[in-house]
C-alpha cells in the first residue's frame, strides 16, 4: 500500500511540474500586452515600458517562470496587474465560496444519485426504472442556468425562503453561508446527479449479472442484501471516476451559475482576469485548478485502492 | 423424516422463460446421503434444473409442477423462508471458480457471511467456524489466511472456497453444477475427492451436474440423462451406463472418447518417421519480464517456455498436453511469431522463421491456427465468406474475386458446410459449426500445419466427435500436420500420433501416443494419467 501511495505521489508531482510549464507557456503566447492594455490605447511608449519593468514583464521567460514557480511553492502568487493586490488574497477570498459550493453540490448530487441509481437498477425495466431514466434524461438535457432561474422564481421570488443572489459571507455563521449557497448548489448538482445516476445504474446492472452475485444469492442473501453487500462496492469504480471529474468541473466550471446568483467565485475571477489581461491572476488560478484536479485524481486513485484489493496489493 | 421419503423430489416440473419452454416434465428424486448425476449436453436444461431447485430463476421464468425438499414444496415458500433455506440446508457450487467469488471481499468474509447469515454466532465463533470450514476443504489457515482475496488464489483453490461457502452451514443437499469443468485434471481429481469425502463425513446428498460421463461414473449412485429440457433416461448408474436404452445416451457414450474410435494413422508409424520434417523447434526460450520492484529494478523474468525442442513431420499429428500455466499458450504464440524469443530457433520447412523480426508471408501461409472460443474469435459484423477469405491477404498474389469465392465455397464444403453458408453471419451458426468455419478459415491458404489451441474444449461431446472426425479426414485428404494443444488427455490420445507432455515450461516427456499412454516414463505424465477420470461401470 505504501508503495502504491509513493508511486501515485511521485506521478502527482511530475504532473504538476509539467502542467505548470504548459500553463506558463500557453499564457505567455496569448496575444495582448497587459501593460499597454492597462494604460489604454494612447499611452506613451516609455510609460508602457516603465510599467512593464515595474510588473517584471521585461525579464526573460525562463526567469519569470522560475520566479513565478518559486513564489507559488511559497504561497506567494504575485501581485495582480489590474488591482495591485496580492493574487493569493484574491484567490483565497474566492476559494472560500467556490470550494464550499463545489463540495455542497457534490454532496447533493451524490445524495440524489446513489439512491436513485440503486433504486433504478434493482427495479430494472419496471416503472421505477423508467421514471428514473426519464428524469435523468431531463436533468442532462436542460441547462443548469435555466434550472437556476426556475429555482430563484420559486424559492426566492414566490416563497421568499432564500435570497435571489449574493453571498452572505461566513461571518454570519455556517447556516447563513450554506443558505445562500443552497440554490446555486442545487442548480449545479441536478445535471451532475442525472449523469451520476445513470453511471451508477448501468455499473450496477453490469455487476448484477456477474457470477458472484449468484453465489451471494445461493448463500441465502436476499436480492436487496446481495445488492448492497456485494454489488455496490464492485460497481463503485466507474462511479468514483465520474465523481472525480465532476468535482474538478464544479470548482471552476460554475461561471454561469456564479453569474446567475451574483456569487464572487473563482469562475468569475478567471473570467474577469482574462478580459483584463491580468495574466498573473489567470496563471495562478489555472495552476490552482490544475492542482485541484490532480489532487482529486490522487484521492480518487486512493479510493480505487480502498474499494478494490486487486489494485492495492503487489502481485505475488 | 422416514427413510423412504426422498430428501429432494421433483414432480412434473416444467419451466418456461418468457413463454419459451426450457424444461418439460422433469421428475426425479434424491435420497439423503446419495449422489445423483445429471448429465447432458449444453442447452439440455441441467443448470436450469439446479436453479429451479434453488428457486433462483431468471426474470420472466414460470415454473409448474412441484419441487419438494424435505417434504416441503419450495415453489410455495415465501422468499424470506427460501433465503433461510439457501446456503443453510441447500448449498450450491458453480462451474466458474474464477468469477464465482466477489473480487473485493476476502475469502474469510465470504465464508463467514454465509455462517453469520444462518447461525446465531458471535463474530469470534463465526471466525472459528470459518477457519475450520476452510481447513476442511484443504485450505490451511497457515497458508491461506482469512484476509486473502480471491485474486491471490488459483482456480482450484477458489473452487475450494466456493465449496467452503456451500458446506459451511452443513447443508443436507449440495448441488454441484459442473464443479470441475473449468479445472485441470489433477485439480479436478482433488476437488472430486474432496466432494466425496465431505459426502461421506456429513451424509449429505449430492446433485452432481456434469457433461463428463467419466466424472459421473466415479461419483454417482443414480443417473439422470437430459436432452433438450427433458429427461430421456434415468436409473441407477450400473443400469444406465451398463445398458443404455435410449439412443441419445448411447450416442453420448460413443461420442465421449470412452468407446475409443481408433484414429486412422495418416501414414503407418514407420513411414511417418521418414516423412520430411515440417516444423523444427530447437532450444526455444520465452520469458515475460518481471514485475517492476523499484525505479530501475525488476524482479527476475518469468521463463514460460524453457529450452523446448521438438519437431513435427509432414502429415503428422502431434499432441501437446499440460496443465494451465505450463507454457502451452506461450509456446503457441511464439510459434506464430506473436512473441519475441529469448533464445532458440524455429524452422518451418527448412526456413528459419525466428531469425526475422517479422514472420514471412510464406511462413504465415504454411502455419494457421484455430482457437478455443468459437464465439469470440469472429467479427460478428462480417459475413462468413469475408471471415474465411481474410487469410488470403498473406498470399504473395491475393486471388481475384471469382477465385476467392471459389476457394471459399471449396473450403466450406470440405468442412461439411455448404457454399451458401458464406452469405450468412456468424451468429446464425452453432458452436460446432463455428469451429468448422474457423477450420475453413485456416484451410483457405492451404497450410501444411494447423495449430489447434484447445480447439474442441468448448464443444459438447457429440459435436466434438464430429469435429475430430473432420480433422482426421482433412489430415488424410490434404496431408495436413497438426499441433493439437489440449488439457484433455482423452482427446489428445484420440487424435495424435505423437504426444509432448509439458510441465512448468519444459517438455518432460515425448513419444508415440500409444507408448506414452501405455507406459508413461515421467512421474508427471503418470500423475496426469492417474488424475484423468476413467469410466467405471459398476454391475447393475
Quick structural overview:
The complex is a heterodimer of chains A (316) and B (540). With 316 residues, chain A is mainly alpha-helical. Chain A has helices spanning 2-29, 34-39, 45-55, 61-73, 87-122, 127-141, 144-158, 174-208, 211-219, 223-252, 255-260, 266-275, 279-307, 309-312.
Characterize the structure shown.
The complex is a heterodimer of chains A (316) and B (540). By secondary structure, chain A is mainly α. Chain A has a domain at 93-312: MetI-like fold, CATH 1.10.3720. Helix content of chain A is 78%, strand content 0%. Chain A contains 14 helices and no strands. Chain A has helices at 2-29, 34-39, 45-55, 61-73, 87-122, 127-141, 144-158, 174-208, 211-219, 223-252, 255-260, 266-275, 279-307, 309-312. In chain A, helix 5 (87-122) packs antiparallel against helix 10, helix 7 crosses helix 8 (174-208) and helix 8 crosses helix 10 (223-252). By secondary structure, chain B is α/β, with parallel strands linked by helices. Chain B contains 19 helices and 20 strands. In chain B, strands 6-7-8-3-9-10 form a six-stranded mixed beta sheet, sandwiched between helices. Chain B has a six-stranded mixed beta sheet with strand order 16-17-18-13-19-20, sandwiched between helices. In chain B, helix 3 packs across helix 4, helix 6 packs across helix 19 (523-531) and helix 14 packs across helix 15. The longest helix of chain B is centred in the middle third of the chain and has 18 residues, at 185-202. Classes of the chains: A mainly alpha (316), B alpha/beta (540). Chain A binds chain B through residues 125, 210-212, 214-222, 229-230, 233-234, 307-310, 313-316, and chain B through 54, 56, 59, 79-80, 83-88, 91-92, 94, 96, 99-106, 113-114, 117-118, 149, 151-152, 162, 165-166, 291.
Can you give keywords for this protein?
heterodimer; A: 316 residues; mainly alpha; MetI-like fold; 14 helices; B: 540 residues; alpha/beta; Rossmann fold; 2 domains; six-stranded mixed sheet; 19 helices; 34% helix; globular
Amino acid at each position: 500500500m505504501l508503495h502504491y501511495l509513493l508511486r501515485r505521489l511521485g506521478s502527482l508531482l511530475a504532473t504538476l511540474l509539467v502542467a505548470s510549464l504548459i500553463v506558463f507557456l500557453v499564457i505567455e503566447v496569448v496575444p495582448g500586452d497587459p501593460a499597454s492594455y492597462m494604460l489604454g490605447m494612447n499611452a506613451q511608449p516609455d510609460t508602457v515600458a516603465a510599467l512593464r519593468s515595474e510588473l517584471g514583464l521585461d525579464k526573460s521567460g525562463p526567469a519569470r517562470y522560475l520566479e513565478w514557480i518559486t513564489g507559488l511553492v511559497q504561497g506567494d502568487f504575485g501581485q495582480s496587474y489590474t488591482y495591485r493586490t496580492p493574487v493569493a488574497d484574491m484567490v483565497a477570498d474566492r476559494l472560500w465560496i467556490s470550494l464550499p459550493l463545489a463540495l455542497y453540490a457534490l454532496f447533493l448530487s451524490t445524495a440524489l444519485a446513489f439512491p436513485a441509481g440503486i433504486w433504478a437498477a434493482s427495479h430494472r425495466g419496471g416503472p421505477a426504472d423508467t421514471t428514473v431514466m426519464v428524469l435523468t434524461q431531463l436533468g442532462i438535457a436542460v441547462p443548469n442556468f435555466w434550472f437556476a432561474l426556475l429555482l430563484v422564481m420559486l424559492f426566492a421570488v414566490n416563497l421568499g425562503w432564500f435570497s435571489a443572489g449574493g453571498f452572505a459571507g461566513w461571518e454570519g455563521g455556517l447556516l447563513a453561508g450554506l443558505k445562500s449557497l443552497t440554490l446555486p448548489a442545487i442548480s449545479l448538482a441536478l445535471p451532475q446527479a442525472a449523469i451520476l445516476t445513470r453511471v451508477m445504474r448501468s455499473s450496477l446492472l453490469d455487476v448484477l449479472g456477474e457470477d458472484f452475485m449468484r453465489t451471494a444469492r445461493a448463500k441465502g442473501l436476499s436480492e436487496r442484501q446481495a445488492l448492497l453487500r456485494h454489488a455496490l462496492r464492485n460497481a463503485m469504480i466507474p462511479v468514483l471516476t465520474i465523481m472525480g471529474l465532476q468535482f474538478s468541473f464544479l470548482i471552476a466550471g460554475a461561471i454561469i451559475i456564479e453569474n446567475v446568483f451574483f456569487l464572487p467565485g473563482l469562475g468569475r475571477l478567471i473570467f474577469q482576469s482574462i478580459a483584463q489581461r491580468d495574466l498573473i491572476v489567470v496563471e495562478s488560478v489555472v495552476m490552482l485548478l490544475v492542482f485541484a484536479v490532480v489532487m482529486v485524481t490522487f484521492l480518487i486513485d486512493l479510493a480505487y485502492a480502498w474499494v478494490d484489493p486487486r489494485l492495492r496489493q503487489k502481485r505475488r | 423424516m422416514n427413510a423412504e421419503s426422498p430428501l429432494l423430489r421433483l414432480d412434473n416440473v416444467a419451466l418456461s422463460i418468457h413463454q419459451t419452454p426450457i424444461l418439460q416434465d422433469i421428475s426425479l428424486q434424491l435420497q439423503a446421503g446419495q449422489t445423483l448425476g445429471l448429465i447432458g449436453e449444453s442447452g439440455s436444461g441441467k443448470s436450469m434444473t439446479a436453479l429451479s431447485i434453488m428457486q433462483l430463476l431468471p426474470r420472466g421464468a414460470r415454473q409448474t409442477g412441484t419441487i419438494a425438499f424435505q417434504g416441503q414444496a419450495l415453489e410455495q415458500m415465501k422468499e424470506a423462508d427460501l433465503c433461510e433455506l439457501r446456503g443453510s440446508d441447500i448449498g450450491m457450487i458453480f462451474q466458474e471458480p474464477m468469477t464465482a467469488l466477489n473480487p473485493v471481499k476476502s475469502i474469510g468474509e465470504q465464508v463467514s457471511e454465509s455462517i453469520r447469515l444462518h447461525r446465531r454466532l458471535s463474530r469470534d465463533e463465526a471466525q472459528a467456524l470459518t477457519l475450520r470450514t476452510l481447513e476442511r476443504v484443504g485450505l490451511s489457515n497457515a497458508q491461506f489466511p482469512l484476509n486473502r482475496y480471491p485474486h491471490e488464489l488459483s482456480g482450484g483453490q477458489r473452487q475450494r472456497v466456493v465449496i467452503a461457502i456451500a458446506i459451511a452451514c452443513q447443508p443436507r443437499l449440495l448441488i454441484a453444477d459442473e464443479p470441475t469443468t473449468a479445472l485441470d485434471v489433477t485439480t479436478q481429481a482433488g476437488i472430486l475427492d474432496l466432494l466425496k469425502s465431505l459426502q461421506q463425513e456429513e451424509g449429505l446428498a449430492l446433485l452432481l451436474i456434469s457433461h463428463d460421463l467419466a466424472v459421473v461414473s466415479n461419483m454417482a449412485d443414480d443417473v439422470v440423462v437430459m436432452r433438450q429440457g427433458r429427461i430421456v433416461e434415468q436409473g441407477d448408474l450400473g443400469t444406465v451406463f451398463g445398458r443404455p436404452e435410449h439412443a441419445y445416451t448411447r450416442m453420448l457414450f460413443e461420442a465421449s472418447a470412452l468407446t475409443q474410435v481408433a484414429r486412422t494413422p495418416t501414414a503407418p508409424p514407420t513411414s511417418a518417421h521418414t516423412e520430411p520434417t515440417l516444423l523444427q523447434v530447437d532450444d526455444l526460450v520465452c520469458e515475460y519480464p518481471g514485475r517492476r520492484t523499484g525505479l530501475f529494478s525488476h524482479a527476475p523474468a518469468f521463463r514460460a517456455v524453457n529450452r523446448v525442442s521438438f519437431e513435427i513431420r509432414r502429415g503428422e499429428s502431434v499432441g501437446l498436453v499440460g496443465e494451465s500455466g505450463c507454457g502451452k499458450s506461450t509456446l503457441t504464440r511464439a510459434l506464430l511469431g506473436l512473441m519475441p524469443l529469448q533464445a532458440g530457433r524455429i524452422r518451418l520447412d527448412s526456413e528459419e522463421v525466428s531469425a526475422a523480426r517479422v514472420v514471412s508471408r510464406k511462413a504465415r501461409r504454411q502455419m494457421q491456427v484455430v482457437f478455443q472460443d468459437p464465439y469470440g474469435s469472429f467479427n460478428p459484423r462480417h459475413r462468413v465468406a469475408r471471415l474465411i477469405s481474410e487469410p488470403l491477404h498473406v498470399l504473395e498474389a491475393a486471388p481475384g474475386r471469382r477465385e476467392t469465392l471459389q476457394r471459399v465455397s471449396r473450403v466450406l464444403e470440405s468442412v461439411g458446410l455448404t457454399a451458401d453458408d458464406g452469405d450468412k453471419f456468424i451468429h446464425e451458426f452453432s458452436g460446432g459449426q463455428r469451429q468448422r468455419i474457423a477450420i475453413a478459415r485456416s484451410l483457405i491458404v492451404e497450410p501444411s500445419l494447423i495449430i489447434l489451441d484447445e480447439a474442441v474444449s468448448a464443444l459438447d461431446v457429440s459435436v466434438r466427435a464430429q469435429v475430430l472426425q473432420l480433422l482426421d479426414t482433412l489430415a488424410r485428404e490434404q496431408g495436413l500436420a497438426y499441433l493439437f494443444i489440449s488439457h484433455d488427455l482423452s482427446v489428445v490420445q484420440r487424435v495424435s500420433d505423437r504426444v509432448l507432455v509439458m510441465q512448468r515450461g519444459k517438455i518432460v516427456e515425448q513419444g508415440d501416443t500409444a507408448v506414452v499412454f501405455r507406459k508413461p516414463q515421467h512421474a508427471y505424465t503418470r500423475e496426469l494419467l492417474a488424475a484423468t477420470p476413467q469410466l467405471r461401470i459398476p454391475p447393475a
